[in-house]
Amino acid sequence: MNRRVGFFAVAALVCFAMVPVLDSKFQWVPKAVGLLYIVLTLLAALDAFGRRRL
After folding, report:
1. How many whole angstroms separate alpha carbon 37 and alpha carbon 29?
2. Residue 46 — pLDDT band, cuts 50, 70, 90?
């Protein structure tokens, strides 16, 4: 598909993997960044799909 999609998906997985390691007061940071990477993954996939369709 696109390199960006793979990168953002792996980055989201890394962020979510860090959640159990951190203190409870800091767990919101990797959750928020992971969620942002999921949104970026979806947007990059839509962009790649749209460019292929044109």
Report:
1. 12
2. very high
Q: Are 13 and 35 in contact (CB under 8 A)?
A: no
Domain carrying residue 15:
3-53
**Verdict on whether the full-model pTM lies above 0.85:** yes
| H helices present in the chain, as ranges | 3-17, 28-53
How far apart CA 30 and CA 37 sit, in angstroms, is 10
Q: What are phi and psi of 14, to 5 degrees?
A: -65, -40
Q: Which residues contact 9 (CB under 8 A, 6 or more apart)?
A: 37, 41
